[in-house]
Write a structure and sequence with these properties.
By secondary structure, the protein is mainly β. It has eight helices and 35 strands. Strands 24, 25, 26, 27, 28, 29 and 30 form a seven-stranded antiparallel β-sheet that branches. A hairpin with a 4-residue loop joins β32 and β33 (509-513). It is globular and about 65 Å long. The two termini are 25 Å apart.
Length: 560
């Protein structure tokens, strides 16, 4: 309760809900056609919304989806594809979307497009999978939420078992007069029910930009809080510095919970100041504290993950960690430190162990000796190494070269108890000249991984105008935390950035919805709306990887 700003009654917003009858229809056996039709104008196959284009699959796809969801969870229902023509990525990708929907073979399929597409296309948003359990006694199913985004002032939920969906357009404004749901470059953090929030389950959205038009956005001053039970969006505490495109994570220090915000941009998207501070909201005292050292440089569009201690053994890149569990760390990756500049390719780390038992009394009292402690350091340089591997996904001779390019605006999920990270991103197009030949090797499965989906890479083109060029990525890459090295694991089918990813442990899938797609020369109407947003949710499953639920990872229960 203390987290909420009481100065504005308008912050206690209600929610306009579209498709709210979807859950009831799924239980009663009503078809998806009926659900969509009941929420749109008669005869209109695409419900209209004032901000961005709201899309729905064709009637034929609705019928196929209805039949398939009767046979089991919808998480494996969709389309598979293979990209063979890199010049027309989207054309090759969308060709398979004309084929009948089917239940994919989990044993042979790594990446597929979910049959339940987004109701409203979106990018610069975030997603979480909550209630991630298949316990027979559970009253809820694993449900994927997608939060706001550019040209999408809405929150959409899709039940990964039944396919039932909800579509909410929150109302209300914050104390600055900004609409609560007008938010992009947002990150979502689940906060479990506890005495400090009156027993509510909440999703915190601790940063973002107001405004849809590119380069006309302004960072927000107030946190947004989504109530999981009531589906209402309200105003949270005022941020120490206005911020957009930050990274954020829930952490525990000395046994108490904090939501920590890393970097971001204060001001406009194209001209604001990059933040290097890490404020952490203390739920017990309702104030922002600074337990961690500032970042080496101000940055935005980053990903941050918590990595628990692990047994690396002979796989450890650091010899001191080969005979004992490694340290618990924060890893920072996929970020930029200048507007539309070249993204950093290194991975930073911060050791948490020395500060796990910080004296909270001193910290809360403002004692300088307890604030901004520790230091950040380069954990992996991300330079090419002879041991790196690239999978022959689409016969791309530059795949291994792209593997090491800096990127931002990417999606990240973890696997194997936080030991692995998967990331995608947007890259600025690199020079085609390679420093050494690329030898493709069969991927050796790793036990400790972080996965990266898509993103943006930028590079400086040498010429009379010194122009910065860019290109989005379709690559799915894997970071082995013990070996501190990257490997390519898959391909999203077409180039995407301005996205975030989430994961379901119950179904063992990584998920990336929406994002901005690379405008193809043909077939743009099949993959992109008029704002460049996409509606597809891509699912990924890899040998040797057991995905962690990013909303409630396994180390929550065991403690940090």
């Amino acid at each position: 309760a203390a987290a909420r700003d009481s100065s504005s009654s308008s912050s206690e917003a209600t929610t306009t809900t579209f498709f709210k009858e979807a859950a009831a229809a799924a239980v009663s056996g009503a078809s998806s056609d009926e659900v969509v039709a009941s929420s749109s104008a008669e005869g209109d196959d695409e419900p209209s919304h004032p901000h961005g284009r709201a899309l729905s699959p064709s009637r034929a796809h609705h019928r196929q989806f209805d039949e398939l969801r009767k046979t089991g969870p919808i998480v494996d229902v969709g389309w598979t594809y293979r990209v063979s023509n890199r010049t027309h990525d989207a054309k090759e990708y969308t060709a398979d979307l004309y084929a009948p929907m089917r239940r994919v073979d989990a044993a042979t399929t790594q990446v597929w497009a979910l049959g339940a597409t987004l109701t409203q296309t979106r990018r610069n948003h975030d997603c979480l999978v909550i209630d991630d359990t298949l316990d027979a006694a559970a009253t809820t199913h694993p449900t994927m939420f997608n939060f706001m985004g550019r040209y999408a002032r809405s929150i959409e939920a899709i039940d990964l078992v039944s396919g039932a969906r909800e579509f909410h357009e929150p109302l209300g404004v914050d104390p600055d007069g900004f609409e609560l749901a007008n938010l992009n470059h947002v990150v979502a953090v689940e906060v479990p029910a506890n005495p400090t929030n009156d027993g509510r389950r909440e999703i915190w959205l601790p940063c973002g930009f107001f405004g849809d038009v590119v380069n006309h956005e302004t960072s927000i001053d107030y946190v947004r809080i989504f109530d999981v039970e009531t589906r209402n969006l309200t105003t949270g505490p005022r941020l120490p510095r206005s911020g957009g495109a930050c990274a954020a994570i829930r952490l525990e220090l000395a046994g108490e919970s904090f939501v920590c915000v890393f970097g971001g941009t204060d001001g406009t998207h194209y001209g604001g100041g990059f933040l290097d501070e890490i404020p952490c909201w203390d739920f017990a005292t309702a104030q922002w504290l600074y337990p961690f050292a500032d970042l080496p440089v101000g940055l935005d569009h980053a990903n941050v993950v918590f990595v628990p201690p692990q047994e690396c053994g002979g796989d450890a890149a650091d010899p001191t960690e080969r005979e004992s569990p490694s340290k618990s760390r924060l890893l920072m990756m996929n970020f930029r430190s200048e507007h539309y500049g070249v993204a950093h390719k290194e991975v930073w780390a911060y050791d948490l162990d020395p500060h796990r038992d910080v004296d909270l009394a001193q910290l809360r009292a403002g004692d300088p000796s307890a604030q901004r402690q520790g230091e950040w350091y380069v954990f992996a340089s991300n330079d090419a190494a002879d041991g790196d591997t690239a999978v022959d996904v689409d016969d791309d001779p530059l795949a291994l070269h792209y593997l090491h390019e800096g990127r931002d605006a990417a999606g990240v999920v973890q696997a194997n108890g936080g030991r692995c990270v998967v990331v995608g991103s947007w890259r600025m197009r690199p020079p085609l000249a390679l420093s050494r030949p690329i030898a493709k090797k069969k991927h050796a499965s790793s036990r400790r991984l972080v996965y990266n989906f898509g993103g943006m890479h930028r590079y400086l083109h040498s010429g009379p105008r010194n122009k910065t060029l860019y290109s989005p990525l379709k690559q799915i890459r894997e970071f082995d935390v013990c070996r501190r090295s990257w490997a390519e694991r898959g391909n999203m089918g077409f180039r995407r950035f301005a996205l975030q990813s989430c994961a379901s442990h119950a179904f063992n899938v990584g998920i990336t919805c929406g994002g901005q797609g690379h405008h193809p020369t043909k077939g743009a109407h099949e993959t992109l709306d008029n704002n460049g947003n996409t509606k597809w949710c891509l699912m990924a499953r890899f040998d040797g990887a057991v995905f962690d639920n990013d909303a409630r990872p396994p180390w929550w229960e065991a403690g940090f």
